[in-house]
Design brief:
alpha/beta, Rossmann fold, Hect, E3 ligase catalytic domain fold, 5-stranded parallel beta sheet
Length: 412
């Protein structure tokens, strides 16, 4: 009798390729293609063993082997967990991972799903103790190589910064990058000088940011300048021609935009406590009802002002309107407050719930009209501090500000 030929079970093979840098990926034939060709040839040589190449591609171009956060590797692991892969084929072990800890996690996932791992250029057998030792030694050298390379890059970066060289990243406002060097842009440099000079005059980044937003001054990408960007800009020593690395300043190769005298003035202001500067700014522009007015949506009212001739009109605007526009407030009162200041100080209270607004005003004024014997307490001394008077003879509640001689009203 003739013996039946052995039937080989199909083993589905997935090829994984990786390249650490993006350099050369735009070429028609790059490192990823070379790795895949070698792996495909190896799978074809094992056709007699039932190996079949899967059509799916698991490529990671421009990703480091020191992490598992790679889209191609994640797709491979997902297919392994779904039982779609039997053999993982790579060109070298370090293409899969350069970390012993990460490789241990991958091997655990392979063993859990019955997947075999094969390296084309480094033959070994992980089913024996000697094979596992060989694998660990190879991975140890791969991790050592990655760490040494990282140290070399850091040392080169530090040495380059010490010479004042520009080492990449977003160019600060006022400069452009040409031939890996910072070059002054005249139009932007003028704006930078103006910002530094006006900060010395105003002394508040919050107020300056609002002024720049109104004037339409923007950053390189067209976004308005906010307070966070201002602080970064005012602390950036690149504007005085320095290159900084890990807190140490070196003379830079680029030209400065700000002179040393102006830089020292700005630094002196920034060293002062922001709370003190904010308190001084508020003292120059008093807002007596700040923190006391709220709209029906719970948003606080912020002080604002406008000018007509020689007169300054102060009023309060809902934070909802400031953040989302005039039509976002749930009440018409917010819109009226932003467009028609009624007097020197217009409260701009929302009229959606007038009873609660009037009640809030009455509670405030009751606290200011107690017996004179209790005027020493902070609550009863509010009237004296704010310089306000209150009348209960009608349903019209009004405050009169003694500092500006103006009146604002709440109607029930």
């Amino acid at each position: 009798m003739k013996s039946k030929p052995d039937v080989k079970l199909k083993r589905r093979c997935a090829v994984y390729t990786r390249k650490s840098s993006e350099e050369g990926l735009e070429q028609e034939f790059n490192s990823l293609h070379a790795q895949r060709e070698a792996c495909e040839a190896y799978v074809a040589s094992q056709k007699s063993e039932g190996w079949v190449l899967l059509r799916g591609r698991y490529d990671d171009g421009g990703f480091s082997g020191g992490t598992l956060e790679r889209p191609g590797l994640k797709a491979l692991i997902a297919d392994i967990e779904d039982g779609l892969v039997d053999v993982v084929v790579v060109y070298k072990i370090d293409r899969l991972s350069r970390s012993l800890a990460d490789f241990a996690k991958l091997v655990e996932a392979f063993d859990r799903n019955g997947v075999t791992f094969v390296s084309v250029t480094q033959p070994f057998n992980t089913t024996t103790s000697m094979g596992r030792l060989t694998l660990n030694i190879l991975l140890s050298f791969a991790q050592f190589e990655r760490e040494v390379t990282a140290e070399r890059i850091r040392d080169k970066f530090a040495a380059s910064r010490a010479k004042g060289m520009w080492m990449g990243g977003w160019a600060p406002l006022g400069y452009d990058v040409k031939d890996r060097k910072l070059v002054v842009t005249p139009a932007e440099a003028t704006a930078v000088k103006m910002i530094f000079e006006r900060f010395v005059e105003i002394g508040s980044a919050t107020v300056l940011a609002k002024v720049l937003r109104v004037e339409g001054v923007t950053i390189k990408r067209g976004s308005p300048i906010d307070k966070k960007y201002l602080y970064r800009m005012l602390n950036n020593s690149a504007y005085i021609g320095e290159a900084v690395h890990k807190g140490v300043s070196y003379p830079g190769e680029h030209e400065p935009i700000i002179d040393q005298e102006l830089w020292e003035k700005v630094s002196a202001i920034l060293q002062e406590s922001p709370r003190k500067r904010a308190a001084r700014t508020r003292a120059e522009t008093p807002s007596l009802l700040k923190g006391l007015l709220f709209g029906p949506d719970g948003a606080a009212f912020s002080p604002s002002h406008t000018r007509k001739g020689d007169r300054l009109y102060r009023y309060y605007v809902s934070q909802t309107v400031l953040k989302h526009g005039t039509g976002s407030c749930p009440s018409d009162g917010c819109r009226r407050a932003t467009s028609k200041p009624q007097s020197s100080i217009s409260c701009g209270l929302c009229s959606a719930n007038p009873k609660s607004s009037l009640a809030h005003g009455r509670r405030l004024c009751r606290s200011t009209t107690k017996s004179p014997r209790r005027t020493s307490t902070p609550r009863c001394n509010m009237r004296a501090r704010l310089g306000m008077s209150y009348s209960r003879r009608s349903r019209r509640a009004s405050w009169r500000c003694s500092s500006s001689g103006s009146t604002s009203a709440l109607r029930a």
